[in-house]
């Protein structure tokens, strides 16, 4: 897929993500290991000292999700859950819209979504280019 920006922008983004990820990892790990200064801070704020470790574990999960690249595996897991919950609630159809040529389109097609309409020029890129949106539908009774 063609990138709308240069290598410098790509690397700048990667470096910023890494810095934020390192900060998040450090912040969560000092809570998980139960450093005295962290535990004392929670107690001073009126919380039980063990709360810091629980919050640290939640932050570890959040950090991993932040750093985990967008993949079809994660998307498939999330979409599977959405479809299962929709079925539990008796929902018969799901709709979504995506820009034409979205890489996730293969995932949606694999789950049985079909294009039912096009919205010409619906999305606008940073450069001002207009891209079509595809309206897709999944009949849950068919799957």
Descriptive notes:
The protein is of the alpha+beta class and 143 residues long. The chain folds into two domains: 7-67; 72-142, Gcn5-related N-acetyltransferase (GNAT) (Aminopeptidase, 3-Layer(aba) Sandwich). 52% of the residues lie in helices and 20% in strands. The chain has helices at residues 7-32, 36-44, 51-67, 72-88, 105-110, and strands at residues 93-99, 114-124, 130-139. It has a three-stranded antiparallel beta sheet with strand order 1-3-2. Helix 1 (7-32) runs antiparallel to helix 3. The longest helix has 26 residues, at 7-32. The mean pLDDT is 87.
In percent terms, what proportion of residues is strand? 15-25%
Major β-sheet annotation: 3 strands, antiparallel
Number of individual domains: 2
Number of alpha- plus pi-helical segments:
5
Radius of gyration: 21 Å
Write down the CATH topology of the largest domain.
Aminopeptidase
The helix-strand sequence is: HHHHEHEE
How confident overall, as mean pLDDT?
87
């Amino acid at each position: 897929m063609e990138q709308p920006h240069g290598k410098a922008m790509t690397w700048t983004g990667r470096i910023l993500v890494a810095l934020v990820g390192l900060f998040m990892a450090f912040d969560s790990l000092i809570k998980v290991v139960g450093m005295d200064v962290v535990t004392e801070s929670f107690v001073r704020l009126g919380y039980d000292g063990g709360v810091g470790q629980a919050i640290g574990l939640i932050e570890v999960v959040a950090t991993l999700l932040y750093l985990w690249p967008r993949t079809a595996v994660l998307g498939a897991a999330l979409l599977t859950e959405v479809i299962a919950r929709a079925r539990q609630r008796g929902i018969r159809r799901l709709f979504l819209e995506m820009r034409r040529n979205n890489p996730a389109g293969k995932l949606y097609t694999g789950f049985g979504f079909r294009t039912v309409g096009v919205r010409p020029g619906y999305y606008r890129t940073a450069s001002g280019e207009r891209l079509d949106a595809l309206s897709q539908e999944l009949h849950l009774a068919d799957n």
